[in-house]
Design brief:
A: alpha+beta; Uridine Diphospho-n-acetylenolpyruvylglucosamine Reductase, domain 2; 13 helices; globular; B: alpha+beta; Aldehyde Oxidoreductase, domain 3; Aldehyde Oxidoreductase, domain 4; seven-stranded mixed β-sheet; 28 strands; about 25% helix; binds flavin-adenine dinucleotide
Chain lengths: ~280, ~800
């Protein structure tokens, strides 16, 4: 479990980090995905640029119509944030279920979504929350909608030399009525199926919904057909059973020794129903 | 008299462990030490055409690179310590297990090249520059398939992959006749899956040759330093034993896997002389998964017959046991003498036959793992009993009460002679199950189960087990094929000041011997526990030892200490008598002093010990000093037993299992330190339940271990468990001086089938009458069982 040798550079600001990035470099966040990969020699960058000490991207702050979470905010700081519990409860629910205390204290949301593990929790939530991801590069910054961010198996819209500096979670009606439920892979405790649901109600009727699923396919996705079918219907057992028939439509369902394709697809439906029941 | 025995004295060793000051092999750094990395086979079955080390050897910081060609032919490899013969009397097949493979690799992880460098990182980097040309062949990993004609051969010089076949008990035709006339026969095919031991401390070894004294030192993370020395010196390297010191310092868990003598120990020892530098090797976690001897891996078919009253009339068991590619130190004993001999269980079954075929496969070696054979035997019996109860629609607890061997104390009543060679020492089985039922609230539970309406399925599972511990009488194990004795030694050195150093051949790697043993010594001598130090794990300090496994340390090692303490007190009395000018017969020993009976004339232990070393005023004909060694060889195994009950709830939609309650009532004989025994039981339960619900090594068809990391191999964690509900009964062992039976393995042995039985019970209650769910019982496996 020894990585190949590498140089280490510690950045004190985003600008400094950007100036350090170049050929054969890699950003080091909390290191909870990257370091294991280095130790197994699955990855061997020449230089690590450590951004975990940059205080400006670690904060969680009120951005008016959204909550701004720094790209370097740890899972633990999200788990402990009171405003998120109010404006977007699924965030804290997910954060508290990631790994163990050690992982949560060091691992970051920016690192998690940059890594884009198909079983990671955050992608489902950012999709359901309609989050905007702010990234900075040498030429300035740009914003990417969560819907455009997750592209494939460990693949995102992030480009070489870009740092995720913030994630904006809208203070929407939907997000204030949201939840996250997860069927854990027993060994790693990543998601075999994770469902993030955000539902805006108009009285007893669904006005609109966003449903993010992770762990199921090669990357996180939204169950848009079900979102649409829910709209205008009362959120009750009858609706839920009628609408949630195939949560994996258009998705290439994964299979491994913890869950076959068939079982995973079944769990996606079960957990989507459970999420909706919590909100109904 | 008993100031300490029976009390939950806090563990004396915990201060150093909890403050990070434990000293493990990898913590040791010797001057000029070099570091080894072992390049291992990525294939399960392949022929090596060529090994090119030239580029690696040229790297700065690389001290040496060794292959099989650098090891003389006279060093054939590490030996097996237990011999089992074929049914026809032929000796088991025992192909060599080379230190480094020359020609043919036989499992993923087989050692091929040892790179030695100034740091582990340099060694590892250099290993990537080594080019090995392999021809890859088909592999076989399943123990039953390995026995089929045409299976790829693990050792091409052998006629087949069968290591031995073996049987025990009553003749097969008698068993068959009894089964044929039975009112009901329950038959079950099952796998007791392979598990990885996962000690927290990975294995580590440092070899060091001292030219000045012509002497080797091996530091190694072992449960068994003296046996390692014996095996390595006499059977591997051919170096004189008195020229080798083996030290097993603090060891972070073993669960059996550190009993055995491993190739790496011999490699670092041998090459440290050739290189002229100490060499350290430490496994990383991936290597630990691939090379620490695994446990279990039995494929079994068993039939149990009952008469119309529910009395067991016969048991027939056929088991294929996976040995892996090479025979590890105790491997052949596990499926035979530690498994077949336990199939009487707690029951009066009159006819029993067990038939075992052990096979080689292209997998890592399988050997003793916490419980070793006895969990497999218990699993076999207890699964059959609960299944039979479901099939016959009788209560599983009642079925057991009907079949229990009646109580016997082993003193006024004789031990119980089983159909499978052993004679149980003492037993009283009804009370453990009665107590467990009481704790569960059995009737109320059955009510709750019958009335359940919440979309879940409740189930209850039983396991009433017996084990053979305190391994064991040398003559008996010798007759059973052990190539070593299994006594234990202890030396008690009373220092002049009355402080006591105790040298034990047992080895603590988590069990708390430094506390438990000190409690015994302090009480027997009537001195404060602070005045006692327990020393173990160093062949230069402890004259001899057989190590720790099979729950033997207190029963055998503790008894050896008691023998030495008795000698100390006997000699001490003579010195005291001299000082008191009385006859030794008139003295009594209490609270650390000898008193002339009926007077207030006394002399303290410390005065006697000082006199023994400053013998100015001294009895005639008695040697100075107060120091005694003893070897204790018991007359029998010890037989702890108990009753375990699991209650589970299954989520019908997902198959997820929640372990709601776990009740364990164990009888481990007398208890010296209840807290430590509880800790052993808790840890054992977690391990046994872990096998039922979470753990399992998976080799694919090519012989790749596909879950060789904690991302994929599921270890049980604290939040997987309810708070365990445990209690005890006490049936003292009649044949050792402390009356103790052993507690290290009980939790693991009893718990696994209780959990599986509970899941099966829940499924039957839900209308799914399945016989088996494969372990580990993943949610998907349970869900599949409900999709009928
Ligand atoms: C034992 C364990 C259990 C875990 N359990 C879970 C779980 O249950 N659920 C779950 O979702 N995850 C889990 N994880 C993963 C964990 O959440 C990681 O922390 C996370 O995936 C990576 O974040 P990090 O800050 O540690 O990133 P790093 O490991 O440092 O980096 C990961 C990748 O992201 C890049 N990167 C890092 N930060 C940035 C940034 N700000 N901008 C651009 N690129 C960046 C790095 O270059 C690298 O490619 C677990 C991890 C472990 C070790």
């Amino acid at each position: 479990m020894i990585p190949t040798s590498f140089d280490y550079k510690k950045a004190n600001s985003v600008e400094e980090a950007l100036s350090m990035l170049g050929d054969d470099t890699q950003i080091l966040g909390g290191g909870h995905s990257l370091i294991p990969a280095l130790k197994l020699r699955l990855n061997s960058p020449g230089t690590l640029v450590d951004i975990s000490k940059i205080s400006s991207i670690k904060e969680i702050s009120d951005g008016g119509d959204s909550i701004a979470i720094g790209g370097g905010a740890t899972h633990a700081s999200i788990a402990n944030d009171k405003s998120l519990d109010q404006y977007c409860p699924m965030m804290g629910q997910a954060a508290r279920e990631i790994g163990d205390i050690q992982v949560r204290n060091v691992g970051t949301i920016g690192g998690s979504i940059a890594h884009a593990d198909p079983a990671a929790d955050w992608p489902a939530i950012l999709l359901a929350a309609d989050a905007r991801i702010v990234v900075q590069n040498k030429n300035g910054s740009r914003e990417i909608a969560a819907d455009q961010f997750f592209k494939g198996f460990f693949e995102t819209a992030l480009e070489e030399g870009e740092i995720i500096t913030a994630i904006h979670i809208p203070k929407s009606q939907k997000n204030s009525n949201s939840c996250y439920v997860k069927f854990k892979q027993p060994a790693s405790r990543f998601a075999i199926v994770g469902v993030a649901a955000a539902v805006e109600m108009d009285g007893s009727v669904v006005k609109s919904a966003r449903l993010g699923l992770t762990g199921v396919g090669e990357f996180a996705y939204r169950a848009t057909a079900i979102e649409n079918a829910l709209t205008g219907k009362p959120l009750n057992e009858t609706t839920i059973n009628e609408v949630v028939q195939n949560a994996t439509e258009n998705t290439n369902v994964m299979s491994d020794h913890f869950a076959s394709e068939k079982y995973r697809a079944h769990l996606a439906n079960v957990y989507l129903k459970r999420a909706l029941r919590k909100l109904g | 008299m008993t100031k300490y025995i029976g009390k939950s004295v806090k563990r004396l060793e915990d201060k150093r462990f909890l403050t990070g000051q434990g000293k493990y092999t990898d913590d040791i750094k010797l001057v000029n030490m070099a570091y080894a990395y072992i390049l291992r086979s990525p294939y399960a079955n392949a022929t090596i055409n060529n090994i090119d080390i030239s580029e690696a050897k040229a790297q700065p910081g690389v001290a040496a690179i060794y292959t099989g060609a650098d090891i003389p032919e006279s060093i054939a490899g590490v030996p097996c310590g237990w011999q089992v013969n074929f049914k026809n009397g032929d000796i088991m097949k025992e192909p060599p297990h080379p230190l480094l493979v020359r020609k043919k690799v036989r499992h993923v992880g087989d050692g091929v090249v040892m790179i030695v460098a100034d740091s582990r990182a340099i060694a590892k980097d250099a290993s990537e520059l080594i080019d090995i040309d392999y021809d890859i062949h088909d592999a076989v990993t399943d123990p039953k398939k390995a026995a089929e004609p045409g299976a790829p051969l693990v050792h091409e010089e052998l006629p087949s992959n069968v290591c031995f076949d073996w049987e025990l008990g009553n003749p097969k035709d008698e068993v068959a006749a009894a089964l044929a006339s039975a009112a009901h026969v329950t038959e079950l095919d099952f796998t007791n899956q392979r598990v990885v031991p996962n000690a927290m401390e990975p294995r580590s070894a440092i070899g060091h040759y001292d030219t000045a004294y012509d002497r080797y030192t091996l530091h190694t993370s072992t449960q068994n330093p003296h046996l390692t020395r014996l095996l390595m010196c006499a059977f591997v390297l051919g170096i004189p034993e008195h020229k080798v010191r083996v030290v097993g310092p603090d060891v972070g868990g073993g669960f059996g896997s550190k009993i055995f003598h491993y190739t790496e120990e011999a490699l670092v020892t041998y090459f440290s002389k050739i290189l002229g530098r100490p060499i350290k090797w430490t496994a990383d976690r991936s290597e630990a998964f691939l090379t620490d001897a695994h446990g279990r891996d039995h494929v079994t078919n068993a039939k149990m017959g009952f008469d119309a009253n529910g009395k067991i009339v016969a048991l027939q068991a056929y088991t294929y046991a996976n040995m892996g590619a090479y025979l590890s130190t105790f491997a052949p004993a596990v499926p035979t003498y530690l498994h077949g001999t336990l199939l009487q269980g707690l029951y009066t079954t009159p006819k029993i036959n067990v038939d075992v075929t052990a096979t080689f496969t292209h997998t890592n070696a399988v050997d003793a793992y916490r419980g070793a054979g006895r969990p497999e035997a218990t699993y076999l019996l207890e699964r059959l009993l609960d299944l039979a109860a479901l099939e016959m629609k009788v209560d599983p607890a009642e079925l057991r009460f009907k079949n229990f061997i009646p109580a016997f104390d082993g003193v006024t009543q004789p031990g119980y002679q089983t159909q499978v060679a052993l004679q149980y020492d003492s037993g009283n089985y009804e009370p453990v199950l009665k107590r467990a039922l009481e704790m569960v609230g059995y009737e109320a539970f059955r009510q709750e189960q019958a009335n359940q309406t919440n979309g879940k399925l409740l189930g209850i599972g039983f396991s009433t087990y017996i084990e053979a511990c305190g391994i064991a009488p040398s003559a008996v194990v010798g007759a059973l094929g052990a190539r070593a004795g299994l006594f234990e030694s202890a030396q008690v050195t009373v220092q002049p000041t009355g402080k006591v150093s105790v040298y034990t051949g047992s080895h603590s790697h988590g069990q708390g011997h430094e506390t438990t043993f000190a409690q015994v010594v302090a009480d027997k001598l009537g001195i404060p526990i602070e005045d006692v130090e327990i020393i173990h794990g160093d062949s230069d300090r402890v004259a001899f030892g057989m190590g720790t496994y099979g729950s033997r340390s207190l029963a055998v090692g503790g008894s050896a200490i008691v023998k030495s303490l008795e000698k100390v007190l006997e000699k001490g009395a003579k010195i005291a008598a001299h000082l008191l000018e009385a006859s030794a017969d008139d003295l009594e020993y209490n609270d650390g002093k000898w008193t002339v009976k009926g007077t207030d004339k006394s002399v303290a232990f410390g005065d006697v010990s000082l006199t023994a070393y400053v013998p100015h005023n001294y009895p005639e004909g008695i040697e100075p000093g107060l120091d005694f060694s003893s070897f204790y060889d018991p007359t029998n195994f010890t037989y702890p037993f108990g009753a375990h009950i699991a209650i589970v709830e299954i989520d019908k939609e997902t198959g997820a299992i929640k372990l709601k309650r776990f009740i364990a009532v164990d009888d481990v004989g007398n208890v010296i330190n209840p807290m430590i025994v509880d800790g052993q039981i808790h840890g054992g339960l977690a391990q046994g339940i872990g096998q039922a619900l979470h753990e399992g090594a998976m080799y694919d068809e090519d012989g790749q271990l596909i879950n060789g990391s904690y991302m994929d191999y599921c270890m049980p964690r604290a939040d997987d468990f309810p708070s365990f509900e445990i209690d005890r009964t006490v049936t003292p062992c009649p044949h050792n001086p402390l009356g103790v039976k052993g507690a290290g393995e009980a939790g693991t042995i009893g718990s696994t089938p209780a959990v599986v039985n509970a899941v099966i019970d829940a499924l039957w209650k839900g209308g799914h009458e399945v016989k088996d769910i494969k372990m580990p019982m993943t949610p998907e496996r349970v869900w599949n069982a409900m999709q009928d």
